[in-house]
Amino acid sequence: MESKQKIINNVIDECCGLTKDTNALIISDNGDFSKELCELFCSTVSTKVKSIETTSQTAKKPYEKTEVQVVDAVQKNHDIVISLMSNSIGKIKSALGDGIKTYLYNRHKIFLSITSLDYYFGKTNAFFEAIDIDHSKMHENCVHVAEQLTKADSAHVKTDCGTDVSLDISGRNGFVSSGLVKTFNAGTNLPGGEAYIAPLETKTNGKIVIDTTINYLSGRKRVSEPVEFTVKDGFVVDISGGSDAQLLAGELEKAGGNNDKSVYCIAELGIGLNEKANIIGNTLIDEKVLGTCHFALGNNTAFGGQNSSPIHADMIVNRPKIFLDNQLIKYPK
Q1: How far apart are CA 312 and CA 67, in angstroms?
Q2: CA 30 – CA 60 distance, rounded (Å)
Q3: What are phi and psi of 331, to 5 degrees?
Q4: pLDDT tens track for 226-257
Q5: CB–CB of 62/94 below 8 Å?
Q6: Is 38 helix (H, G, I), strand (E, B) or coil?
Q7: CA-CA distance, 115 to 243, in Å (whole number)?
Q8: Measured on CA atoms in the order 16, 19, 23, 27, is the torsion positive or negative?
Q9: Which of 199, 205, 175, 180 is nearest to 190 (CA)?
């Protein structure tokens, strides 16, 4: 692996398309890894742009209010915003009127986000290894798979652990998260490396066995034993397994208070395509690992779906067989 500074420099050059006319904003918090990345990004970005502004806040959970200096900085006329968060930027939608990605997208800005840095504790090299990759080539691979998703009417996923689920993806478009954000109106997170789609919300049926990593509402971790979802007409109707299943079921019940069914919707099928990423127990990197796929519960309105929900929680499945229109998916060579 190259030096961390060299890797960040390569990412900025390959992914962001900065020029001497670019005005940049970098947001960080008081977490150790956030501060380290802020120093690395500032060192590189400052040599490539017209101006650079930095701002910081204390580390936030998704439900905690974003600090005013961050909100004010986001509303200024920057061309690119780079967000480096220990967990989340916080509850910024109430201040902006939209989530930060949508807010910047609608204003033709570039948004590069790295979140949940706390979950790399003791494993920071895994992050740098996953972004030390040819992003242009990976983007081509993601587009190749996303196009297959767009063309297909159905998907069927099976694993040796027991997943056997059918999804209707007709009329929906596949999307790409590769790390490339060279053009305005673009946003992505790092590490990149997935193609994904929102299935029709009432047409998923079967069994999903989560055997790798779960995005709990309270955090992310490897599962100690498989968690099984029974899915009927697009929604999880039963969750079984050991302590992990009990924890997740309790959190979803709390999140879906007052019988909010939206938190149980199968909102996404995603396919990992990053050959440098390795499973570490953080869904934001594990979902990008080549040879995995993930299902998300909750919201999918940002990528063509119709299920509005207060959560979006990814669940990772390892070594799946994925069939599109009854044909095994064609991975790029």
Answers
A1: 23
A2: 10
A3: -80, 145
A4: 999 999 999 999 999 999 999 999 999 988 87
A5: no
A6: helix
A7: 27
A8: positive
A9: 180
Instruction: Please give the backbone phi and psi of residue 221, each rounded to the nearest 5 degrees, phi first.
Output: -165, 160
Rounded to whole angstroms, the Cα distance separating 37 from 211 reads: 31
3-class SS at 263?
helix
Residue 1's pLDDT is 66
162: DSSP letter = S
310: phi then psi, degrees, rounded to nearest 5: -75, -5
Instruction: Please check whether residue 196 is in contact with residue 271, taking contact to mean a CB–CB distance below 8 angstroms.
Output: yes
The torsion angles phi and psi of 205, rounded to 5 degrees, stand at -145, 145
Would you state the structure tokens that stand for residue 3, as one six-digit string?
């030096």
Kindly report the number of other CB atoms within 10 A of residue 116's CB atom.
18
- The residue extents of the domains of the chain are 4-121, 135-328
Residues in the chain: 333
Cβ neighbors of 259 (< 8 A, separation 6 or more) are: none
Three-state DSSP state, 129? helix
Q: Is the pLDDT of residue 333 over 80?
A: no
DSSP structural state of residue 20: T
Instruction: Check if CATH label 3.40.630.30 holds for domain 4-121.
Output: no
Query: Which of 86, 83, 8 is closest to 40 using CA atoms?
Result: 8
